Amino acid sequence: MTKKDKSELKIKAIENGTVIDHITANKAIYILKVLGLPDSETQNVTIAMNVSSGEMGRKDILKIENRELDYQELNQIALIAPQATINIIRNFEPVKKYKSVLPDKITSILKCTNPKCITNYENEPITPIFNVIQDYPPVVRCHYCEKLIKTEDIEKQFE
Q: For the residues of 89-137, what is the DSSP string, one character each?
């Protein structure tokens, strides 16, 4: 084995599934939380954290075997990793490639930080809805109380 071979980062290729690349360094765990992984149906999830990247300096990578993420899941990733690229893999080959894009509205995965917002009352079964104000860095506004939620407050919800 040559010196170059020893110094290369090697992560096993997946036959079918999803690869999420260019995740902001040390944020892959947050993406797993958004996606509800690991779960009983997903067999193998590979995480590479804080690895060298020519474009970003440092980045994370997620490989999820035998699961193709749906459109809604792909867009939710943009909350945490606005520069992420998502590759759908079939027979060891990428067949689709996406950039993460925030939708105009986000539902369910965030909570409003305003304790007086109607979405935070237990006896009011209202799904939180947020309008995206800014894509990068992400800033959203609660549909009900109009509270602005900035990137640092979004990230705190996934810690």
A: EETTEEEEEEE----SEEESS---S-TTSGGG-TTS----EEEEEETTT
